[in-house]
Design a protein that fits this description.
Blueprint: H1 3-11, H2 18-30, H3 35-48, H4 52-63, E1 79-83, H5 91-101, E2 106-110, H6 120-124, H7 136-146, E3 148-152, H8 159-169, H9 177-190, E4 195-202, H10 211-227, E5 231-238, E6 246-247, H11 249-260, H12 266-282, H13 289-301, H14 304-315, H15 321-324, E7 334-338, E8 344-349, H16 351-361, E9 377-380, E10 387-388, E11 395-399, H17 402-414, E12 416-419, E13 429-433
Parallel strand pairs: 1-4, 2-3, 4-5
Antiparallel strand pairs: 5-13, 6-9, 7-11, 8-10, 8-12, 9-11
Helix pairs in contact: 1-3, 2-4, 2-8, 4-9, 4-10, 5-11, 5-12, 5-14, 9-10, 12-13, 16-17
Length: 436
Amino acid sequence: MNMYELILKKREGERLTKEEIYWLVNGYTRGDIPDYQMAAFFMAVYFRGMDQSETVWLTLAMAESGEKLDLSEIQGIKVDKHSTGGVGDKTSLIIGPMLAALGIPVAKMSGRGLGHTGGTIDKLESIEGFQTALTREQFIGNVNRIKLAIAGQTANLAPADKKMYALRDVTATVDQDALIAASIMSKKLASGADVIVLDVKTGSGAFMQTQERAEQLAKLMVDIGWQAGKKTSAILTDMNEPLGHMVGNALEVQEAIEVLQGKGDERLLEVVFALASYMVLGAGRAETLEEAEQILKETIETHKALDKFAEFVQAQQGNPDWIYHPERFPKARLKIPVYPTGNGYLKSCDTREVGMVSLILGGGRKTKDAKIDSTVGIQLCKHLGDAVTTKEPFAYLYANHEEQAKEAEKRLQNAYTISEIPTEKQPVIKKIVVNE
């Protein structure tokens, strides 16, 4: 085999074999294939696509390019979830303790945030002392003992994806369904869970902005999961506005604690119960979605999930008192009210822009090495469809610098459009995709 022939073959719209795809992935990961040839291949795939079999082989080759997390020492059916990225998405912080409280093992590898979306690892590290760098023994031991561990991704977990994504990012070939699906699912398959539930976002703050594209991606990833022997399902959720009320690392942890205390935003709760219910079903702990949701609600009503969150934090060297006393989280210096630009009803939101507001305040990263300020962020007081008036704040900014706050305030106001007439509220759960 040689790379020239594979580029030509894909440029002409022909189908690659399993052996060719494995050769290509392994060769590029080792450094035998230069970037310029791989870039040409990605561009050919961008225009010609890959069929389902090619996509599955690409995913498996990427998953097998480095270490695969062996979770065989963990007792029970292991469950995991993945979100395609959104603003204000703190569902993992809520779902993990709920499932662990039911005795369902959650062994999760998570990443950091880059750009307008926040990472679960960054949020957890806003808790005093919390450690995300765990040895394999600590990771496995914590899951067996308390049923929950969340750690940063190891460098050698699906290394082909890391190298390939970096090249796609600078060659305008990120936005292609087969390549996106292979990137996401290779990491999930390498992470070793038995059950995978995907939260596929759609809307102005999502990678897939139209529901049609999001549904295509969801179906492709569900098919890949099942062909790889994993119980996989996907839920399409709305990202035409942030999820919940808080955007920002420490603020989102505090909102997650509120939910586990029995409070919380209705839209956030709806997404949490939908995702968690499919994880409970996959683990064989309930026969129906209604039964799954009921036992999940009981973990909140009895405070077992809150206690589990504190136990999980302590197991990873964090201060569990912060979970019971969230007022101990450090606060930003400024809390600035933001008023709407007119009276009426919130009609639409540029969710990506709301995420950028958090980035301006210091709550996100412009580069992968940038430091973040865990105290800053946004509190949203209204959802789309709600009435607003110029006399009442629709949001608050948490900031540490006046100049950043001034720019953030203008951009947050401009991120929303206001209608004089009432607008219909949109459902947060758009569609469920399961294996037919």
